[in-house]
Amino acid sequence: GAGVSQSPRYKVAKRGQDVALRCDPISGHVSLFWYQQALGQGPEFLTYFQNEAQLDKSGLPSDRFFAERPEGSVSTLKIQRTQQEDSAVYLCASSPRDRSYEQYFGPGTRLTVT
Amino acid sequence: GNSVTQMEGPVTLSEEAFLTINCTYTATGYPSLFWYVQYPGEGLQLLLKATKADDKGSNKGFEATYRKETTSFHLEKGSVQVSDSAVYFCALNGNNNDMRFGAGTRLTVKP
């Protein structure tokens, strides 16, 4: 079946621009996660949704980062006034149950801020 | 807080060699442990998992045993193939359901 999809796959933004990254989870998956993966590092947790409720946003690095999942399916991660340190791969994952269950990852969006 | 430390790479092996990638963790309580694999150009895929002490996860010839006494979850494979070339991530999901990943180990298998 269809896996987790993310768009765009690549995004180049000029410093100060706003960007929006989209995640389509596996149909019916309750939980959705966003991670940030810097080059040569493992994914770092950003935020977690259960259905439409954002239950944990403790990993968001600043108030420039905002995520939503208004209908409990598709999610958007928005970064305002991008900075060079925001350059990374942003991964989305979904899970059929709560966050203790295994997660299924999308291919990621590589963001480069110039 | 919870954390995972895994063997630094890169690791280069010849086909049919034995593979070990070390992973140790620090956690309170009883975390679940995972190995994820990332093939070139693809997303992270779950390779195997173990949810309690002494459990052995296995998949595609890979194995890892949850050792609480040594807080380890080392990945092993008896005979690697070129197609196993990828980046391998050890991860844990703790009691507060906070998934933590290691930095990843790049494996290259040469024919």
Written as H for each helix and E for each strand, in order along the chain, the element string of chain A is EEEEEEEEEEE
Count of individual helical segments of chain A: 0
Oligomer: heterodimer
Overall spatial form of chain B: globular
Quote the beta fraction of chain B.
Answer: over 45%
* Strand/helix succession of chain B: EEEEEEEEEEEE
The overall strand count of chain A is 11
Biggest sheet statistics of chain A = 7 strands, mixed
Report the radius of gyration of chain B as a whole number of Å. 13 Å
Keywords:
heterodimer; A: 114 residues; mainly beta; seven-stranded mixed beta sheet; four-stranded antiparallel beta sheet; 11 strands; 48% strand; B: 111 residues; six-stranded mixed beta sheet; 12 strands; globular
Polypeptide structure, described:
The complex is a heterodimer of chains A (114) and B (111). Chain A is mainly β and 114 residues long. Helix content of chain A is 0%, strand content 48%. The mean pLDDT of chain A is 93. Chain B is an all-beta fold and 111 residues long. Helices cover 0% and strands 51% of the residues of chain B. Chain B is globular and about 45 Å long. The N and C termini of chain B lie far apart (41 Å). The mean pLDDT of chain B is 93. The chains are: A mainly beta (114), B mainly beta (111). Chains A and B meet through strand 10 of A and strand 5, strand 6, strand 10 and strand 11 of B.
List the helices and strands and how they pair.
The complex is a heterodimer of chains A (114) and B (111).
Chain A: E1 5-7, E2 10-13, E3 19-24, E4 31-37, E5 44-50, E6 53-56, E7 65-68, E8 75-79, E9 88-95, E10 104-105, E11 109-113
Parallel strand pairs in A: 2-11
Antiparallel strand pairs in A: 1-3, 3-8, 4-5, 4-9, 5-6, 7-8, 9-10, 9-11
Chain B: E1 3-6, E2 11-14, E3 19-21, E4 23-26, E5 32-38, E6 44-50, E7 56-59, E8 62-65, E9 75-77, E10 86-93, E11 99-101, E12 105-110
